[in-house]
Design the sequence.
């Protein structure tokens, strides 16, 4: 199925390193192009019912009466080198660009900005059923749609954060989840051997390179924000997280790409699982008995990712790579318990039952691995310091 899409302007964003194309699309074609995406999008971002919102109910009526709405923004998730090549040529052909965009399918696009407007467009069409003349006139009316092509994942997040400044804050975790299909595709291309499962899959981690998708997303969020507290309701912490991300993007390079993150996590995960068959346990439910449990427990995994993000931010590329290799080599050495998981288990068992155990574990893990990566401390000293802080709580 092809669509009548007319490109009337395009620009290259020097900051985001991506192309933006402004187009006009008939409402009927737009609704067909985005058809089937609602189930995925509804998981990502709640669609507000037009029956429960007077503002959106009014917009539906206005749309039926010919109202002009701001451009809806779509992201082309899949690679289309022919579009980039055409736009990079000396005299780009509008006809060629129209053909490429018109052959997109609904599985290749995501609504980046305009989900509620899309819902209102659909509702207006439903309300016009039975009035064929008005319905046909409505479907043939054109709206403006902006397409972003050849755009990296981090650039999409950067655009969302900066353009949403001053509006109702969206948590960093939510921003990541909005493009979860895009993240999954990117991860699977980077490490095909990784097994990612969702809550619906009812999967269970039993070894290396097996990850619950939501936890992997949260870990990447912690890596970007350099904080183990990734979805806090505290507005101050949330704003700091946003600033941290923007700060990282300013000096953006491959070190913060999700591909690089997944590659590092995968290699360290494999090394931990190879080293630890079984660890002496304190008997507490939070104890680490097997290596695969360390990255399978939310507080420990997220805490580690936050420390990795801090190392990524503070160290030069060569130093960062050197510390990653040092950790992997340490895990491959002769020492029986190089990460001192026995000390971790002992400290975890002393955390007061009435304390926020998960928060303490996150902060403690971040602290320990930050000491290793940035301060060059051994794990025994790092856990002793972390344990002394736990006792002070």
Sequence:
């Amino acid at each position: 199925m092809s669509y009548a899409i007319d490109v009337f302007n395009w620009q290259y964003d020097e900051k985001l390193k991506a192309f933006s194309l402004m187009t006009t699309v008939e409402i009927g074609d737009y609704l067909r192009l985005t058809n089937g995406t609602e189930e995925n999008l509804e998981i990502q971002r709640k669609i507000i019912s037009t029956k429960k919102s007077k503002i959106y109910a009014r917009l539906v009526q206005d749309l039926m009466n010919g109202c002009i709405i701001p451009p809806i923004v779509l992201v082309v998730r899949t690679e289309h080198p022919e579009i980039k090549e055409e736009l990079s040529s000396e005299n780009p052909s509008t006809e060629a660009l129209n053909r490429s965009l018109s052959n997109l399918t609904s599985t290749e696009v995501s609504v980046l900005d305009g989900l509620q407007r899309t819902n209102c467009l659909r509702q207006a069409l439903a309300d016009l059923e039975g009035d064929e003349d008005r319905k046909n006139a409505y479907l043939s009316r054109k709206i403006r749609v902006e397409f972003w092509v050849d755009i990296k994942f981090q650039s999409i997040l950067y655009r969302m954060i900066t353009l949403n400044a001053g509006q109702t804050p969206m948590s960093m975790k939510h921003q990541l989840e909005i493009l979860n299909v895009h993240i999954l595709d990117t991860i699977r291309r980077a490490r095909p051997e990784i097994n990612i499962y969702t809550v619906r899959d009812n999967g269970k981690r039993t070894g290396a390179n097996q990850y619950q998708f939501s936890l992997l997303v949260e870990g990447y969020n912690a890596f970007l924000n350099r904080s183990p507290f990734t979805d806090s309701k505290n507005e101050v912490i949330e704003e700091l997280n946003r600033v941290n991300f923007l700060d990282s993007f300013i000096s953006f390079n491959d070190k913060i790409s999700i591909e690089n993150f997944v590659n590092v996590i995968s290699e360290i995960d494999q090394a931990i699982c190879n080293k630890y068959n079984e660890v002496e346990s304190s008997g507490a439910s939070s104890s680490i008995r097997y290596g695969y449990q360390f990255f399978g427990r939310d507080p420990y995994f997220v805490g580690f990712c936050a420390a990795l993000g801090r190392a990524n931010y503070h160290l030069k590329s060569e130093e960062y790579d050197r510390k990653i290799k040092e950790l992997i080599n340490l895990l491959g050495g002769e020492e029986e318990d190089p990460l001192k998981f026995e000390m971790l288990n002992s400290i975890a068992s002393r955390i007061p039952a009435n304390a926020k155990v998960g928060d303490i574990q996150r902060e403690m893990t971040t602290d320990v691995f930050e000491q290793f990566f940035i301060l060059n401390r051994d794990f025994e000293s790092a856990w002793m310091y972390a344990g002394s802080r736990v006792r002070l709580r």
